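Case study 2.
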Amino acid sequence: MRIGIDLGGTKIEAIALAEASGGNAEALFRRRVATPSGDYEGILNAVAGLVEAAEQETGQRGTVGIATPGALSPATGLLKNSNSTVLNGKPLDCDLARRLGREIRMENDANCFALSEAVDGAGAAFGVVFGVILGTGVGGGIVMDRRVHLGRNSIAGEWGHNPLPWPRAGEQPGPACYCGKQGCIETFLSGPGLAREYRARSGAEKSALAVAEAAAAGDATASACLELYCDRLARGLASIVNVLDPDVIVLGGGLSNLQCVYEMVPELLSAYSFSADLGTPVLRASFGDSSGVRGAAWLWPDGVARR
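Prediction:
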């Protein structure tokens, strides 16, 4: 049995998957609890409690994989770049391994998302999968032949913290990003980025979802914001295609549910990329917001290509 944990800022989700070599594994257990806000010890206890509950309910002992915001630093072994700041600078994998009494595997949540979709989701028929999360932030993960590619610094796939390509008037230097730079792709393509664009054009406050609903109801300003969003998304993805040339791009996160993305981005992506006959499909994730927790479970036995 494989147990996956998705450690999010507001919720912690657990899943237990039956053993299966080629994907399509049966979910034997699933549960969500609220994340103890700002409480490191509380987070450790919550994760341990979910693993214990999964094993008690199924009567089986499982391997444990964990999806986290941020990444473990190869240099220090401590968590870095997490927007759940209480986790930064902590030996999270070691602390959880001690609590659970076994080796665990831990990777960035975007990497786990990409792995899930590569194993038995929308990217299962492809060799090189670039998985994208479009939500409160913008993340990415690279999976090659069903193994996560981490990179030397464990930041492979972090396209959200590159500058927006081919910037237009008004897009430079760009909004400030929490990483300390300006004009990162994340500041334009996240949910808050779409909401900010609508506010700048209309003076009204709407969430990203509300902007999409307004566009569907005939709001011309909202429609213009979505068109610009798709253009920016295509520019950002074209830079990935030109460097990585993945077999497929799989989109997840709340903004991946925008239908205009699948109607507009493939054509725009072809126009921006360095190929006159681009054949890269852009697909919606099969498992939605469960991809991260499923991918954490798939970290065992060999879901990560390590240096």
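The longest strand covers residues 27-34.
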